[in-house]
Write a structure and sequence with these properties.
- With 370 residues, this protein is mainly α.
- The protein has two domains: 2-96, no CATH class; 100-370, no CATH class.
- The chain is built from 14 helices and three strands.
- It has helices spanning 2-24, 28-48, 54-68, 75-96, 102-120, 127-131, 180-198, 215-235, 252-265, 275-294, 302-318, 323-336, 343-355, 358-367, and strands spanning 133-139, 152-158, 167-173.
- Helix 7 (180-198) packs across helix 8.
- The relative contact order is 0.10.
- The structure holds zinc ion (ZN).
Length: 370
């Protein structure tokens, strides 16, 4: 099953890079044929799981994809399709030389990036918070049953013991149904687990996991995970295939997928009533972030305003406040920014910027409505 995941994840990157060029030249049908062939070959791999090394499978896959396009119908097809097939071949050859599972590498990198986001805000995340995180990957042949439009489910379980913190992230993928959206959304999906849950505080044993309908953990903090994912994608050079699930050749693909999945998390869903709580969290977060850009202290300095908002959010996630108190703060911010901005919230926020007192901000904001 792993082979199918590798094959699809990397070929999708190249199909995505070349899609518009091929389509614009009038060869969309050929592009679809390659994609269909990729899915058939990898599905067969899942079904029958023939023995052999990953590298051999990837080499054969590249050859099969090329031969599926032969002979080219005309010179124009050859001109736009050959570079794509060459790129696929090169990338699969590189991927065949990988020593580690790219999913595992992506998780390790994401964990480090999430820790970096906390540390960049002056929050000294202890090393054992990072080393105590375990991850497991599982595959299933049936489609993944998720409220999100992706074929991966990631869940975090906090498992602190009196002697130390620990977190376990379970990731389940369906290789047979693995599509582009899932592959390109992976960095954001894993950031959600690490930023929102794995490094939730207060940092010490006995942490209490937030509920699945937590406005703060699943809504507000998801907004933060999304912005970190967008920052990461923006920082990529692009262009070069790197046999990695994060350094994709077209970084815009990561932003588009993160955007789509992030939006799906807080859109009405018939089977998942928690969507409204998540939507409230995201909306409150966006409103407060936007309000900060308008305060005299930060006006005209959007980068500083965004950094101040991220710091406030991460501090709240690691604070001594309980999950319930965090959710109450979100509800208060939502109410205070629902129609027009409550003056009391502006006062609280400006005082926070002046004194850096998070406890005062949270208690003062909640009190606005009690
Ligand atoms: Zn979550």
């Amino acid at each position: 099953m792993q082979k199918a995941v590798w094959g699809r994840a990397f070929v999708y990157q190249m199909l995505d890079l070349h899609q518009l060029t091929v389509e614009a030249a009038g060869y969309g049908l050929l592009w679809n044929e390659v994609r269909g062939r990729l899915q058939a070959l990898t599905a067969r791999q899942v079904e029958f799981d023939p023995a052999g090394p990953v590298s051999g499978f990837l080499t054969t896959l590249a050859e099969d994809l090329r031969s599926s396009m032969m002979p080219f119908p005309d010179g124009g097809a050859e001109k736009v399709c050959s570079p794509m097939l060459d790129d696929i071949e090169r990338l699969l050859a590189d991927a065949g030389r990988l020593r580690n599972d790219p999913l595992q590498t992506l998780f390790t990198d994401t964990l480090r990036a999430a820790a970096g986001a906390y540390r960049a805000c002056g929050l000294p995340l202890p090393d054992d918070m990072v080393t105590a995180v375990e991850v497991s990957f599982d595959h299933q042949s049936a489609p993944v049953d998720s409220a999100l439009p992706i074929q991966v489910i990631a869940t975090t379980r906090l498992g602190d013991t009196p002697s130390g913190v620990s977190a376990h992230v379970d990731i389940v993928v369906s290789p047979t149904y693995l599509d582009e959206l899932t592959v390109f959304a992976l960095p954001y999906v894993l950031l959600h687990e690490c930023v929102c849950h794995v490094f939730q505080g207060p940092w010490g044993p006995g942490r209490i996991q937030a509920d699945a309908d937590s406005r703060f953990a699943e809504g507000w903090m998801d907004h933060i995970a999304y912005t970190v994912a967008c920052d990461q994608a923006r920082a990529l050079a692009g262009g070069k295939p790197a046999s990695s699930l994060s350094a994709v050749p077209r970084p815009g693909a990561l932003r588009e997928a993160a955007d789509q999945v992030h939006r799906a998390r807080h859109q009405p869903h018939p089977r998942d009533r928690a969507w409204a709580a998540r939507a409230m969290g995201v909306r409150a977060a966006r409103n407060l972030a936007e309000l900060m850009t308008r305060l005299p202290e930060l006006a005209g300095r959007p980068v500083e305003a965004a950094a101040a908002f991220r710091r406030l959010s991460l501090r709240l996630n690691v604070s001594e406040f309980s999950n319930t108190q965090r959710d109450l703060f979100v509800a208060a911010v939502h109410k205070a920014t629902l129609a027009r901005t409550e003056h009391g919230l502006v006062v609280q926020l400006r005082r926070y910027l002046e004194r850096d007192d998070l406890v005062h901000l949270v208690e003062g904001t909640v009190k606005l409505f009690t």
